[in-house]
Amino acid sequence: MIAAEQTSGNENRYRWVVLATCCLSVFMAGLDTTIVNVALPSIQHALHASVSGLQWIIDAYTLVIACLLMLSGSLADRFGRRRFFQIGLITFSLGSLACSLTPSLGWLIAFRGLQAIGGSMLNPVAMSIIANTFTDRAARAKAIGLWGSVAGISLAGGPVLGGLLVSGIGWRSIFWINIPVGLIAIALTQRFVPESRAEHPRQLDLPGQLLVIAALGCLTAGIIEGPRRGWDSAPIVALFACAIFAATALVLLESRRREPLVDMRYFRSAPFSGAALIGVFALATLGGFLFLNTLYLQNVRGYSALHAGLLTIPMAAMLAAFSVVAGRLVARSGPRLSLIASGGLISVGASLLIGLSAHTAMWYLIVAYLVYGAGAGLVSAPITNTALSGMPRDQSGVAGAIASTFRQTGAALGVAVTGAIIAGSSAGFVISSHAAWAVVASCGVMVVLLGLVSTGRWALSTAERNGARLATDISPGP
After folding, report:
1. Confidence of residue 10 (pLDDT cuts 50, 70, 90)
2. Where does a domain end: 256, 276, 295?
C-alpha cells in the first residue's frame, strides 16, 4: 500500500511538472502579445512607423497565429504533440532573437510573423497535452483553470515589464526575455512531457488552410489599410470581397470534407460556438485597450514607456488577480458567473474611458483601469472551459486550436478596428478615441449576452449530445 501511495504521489508530481512546462509556453506567448504595445511609441520613433505600421507590428503576430493554430493542432495530433511543442518553442525563441536584431520596420513585421509561426504551435498543443495528462474531470478543470490563469497573468505583466525594459535598456530588449524562458521550456519538455497522438487524426486540409489565411488576412488588411487608401478604393473593396468569398467557401468546403481542417460539427455545440464568439469579443477589447491606452499615455500625456507601464499596473494587477479567481470559480461552479461578471466589468471599465481628455484626472484613469482589468482577468479560464465542454479528449487538440483561433482573431481585429478609427479621423487622437472606446465597451456587452446563452441548460445539453456524436463518429460524413 505504501509503495502504491508513493507511485501515485510521483505520478501526481509528474503531471504538475508537465502542467508547469505548458504554463511556461503560454506565459511566453501571452507575454509577447502585450509586451510590444508599450514599446510602440519608441519603435515608431526609431523605425519611422505610421499608425498602420504600428498596427501591423501587433497584428503580424496575432494574425499569423490565428491563421495557423488549427493546422498546428491538427499536425500535432497526427505527428506528435511533444515534437510539435518543441519545434514551436525553438521557432518562437529564434523569432524573438531576430526581432531584437531587426534593421527596419518591414523586417520587424516579418520576424513577428516568424515568432507567430512558433507561437501557433504552443497554446493549442499545450492545451491538448494538459487534457491528455489530466484524465480526471475535476483535476483537468483545475489544471486548465491554472493554465488560463497563467495566460491572464502573462497578458497583464506585458505592459509593466515592457515599460521597465524599454526605459532601462531599449525597445529591442523586450524580445530578449523570451530566449531564456524558451530554453528552459525546451529542456523541461524533453525531460518530462510524454509524447501523445490522436487515435484518429485528420488528414491535412491544404484548401481549408489557404481559405482561412485568405479570409482572416484579407479582412484584417482591409480594416488596417482602409483609412489610408480609402474605404471605397479598389484595393480595399477587393480585400473585403476576397474575405467574404473565402469565408463562404470555407464553410461550404469544410462541411463536405471527410476530414476538414475546421470541423463544422463542433459548432453544433452551443457552448463551443458561444466560447468562440466570446473569445473574439473579449480579446478584441484587450487588443483595443492596450493599443489605445499606450498611445494615449505616451503620445497624448507625454509619459515615458516606464511611466506608462507603471500606470498600467492597476489594470495588470487586477487582471492577474482575477485570472486566479476565475480559475477557482470555474473549477467550483462552472463558467457562467465568471463570463457574465467579466463582460459587465469590461463594458463599465471601457465606458469610463469614452470621455477621456488630455487632462483627465489620474485617479479617474486608475479606477477605469481597475474595473477593466478585473473584467479582462475573469474571461480566459471560462472561455477555455466552455470551449472544451463535452468534447472528446481525442479531439481536444483540434477543438482547442479552433477556439484559440477565434481568440487571436479577436485580438487582431481589436487592434485593427480601434486603429482604423484613430487613423481615419481628422479630429485628433483624443476625440477620435471616444468612438474607439465605445466599440470596446460594446464588445463587453456582447460577452455578457453570449455568456448567458452559451452556459444555460439548453446549451449544455447540446454539448453533451454533440460530444457523444463526436465520440462515436470520428470522421464526418459528406
Report:
1. low
2. 256
Burial 418-453 (b: 16+ CB within 10 A, else e): bbbbbbebeeebeebbbebbebbbebbbbbbebbeb
Cell of 329: 470559480
Cell readout for 300 is 497624448
- pLDDT in the model for residue 281: 94
Domain span including residue 46: 6-194+201-205+257-472
Higher pLDDT, 434 or 305: 434
Please check whether residues 125 and 33 belong to one and the same domain: yes
Q: Dmax of the chain from CA atoms?
A: 75
Check the CA dihedral 135-137-143-147 and report its sign: positive
Map 218-253 to HEC letters.
HHHHHHHHHHHHCCCCHHHHHHHHHHHHHHHHHHHH
With residue 198 as reference, give the H or E element that holds it: none
Q: Determine contact, residues 264/251, Cβ cutoff 8 Å.
A: yes
In angstroms, the CA 397 to CA 81 distance is: 9
pTM comes to 0.82
* C-alpha cell at position 52: 498602420
Contact yes or no for 384/30 (Cβ under 8 A): no
Cell of 270: 452551443
**Domain-located, residue 477:** no
| Cβ-contact 72, 120 below 8 angstroms | yes
Backbone region of residue 180 per phi and psi (left: phi > 0; alpha: psi in -120 to 50; beta: other values): alpha
Same domain for 175 and 322, yes or no, is yes
268 within 8 A of 462, measured Cβ to Cβ: yes
The confidence band for 9, taking pLDDT boundaries of 50, 70 and 90, is low
Number of helices (H) and strands (E) in the chain: give both, helices first.
Answer: 19, 0
Which DSSP helix (H) or strand (E) runs through 87? helix 81-100
Task: Give dist(CA 329, CA 270) in Å, integer.
Answer: 21
Minimum mean pLDDT among 263-277, 305-319, 454-468: which range?
Answer: 454-468
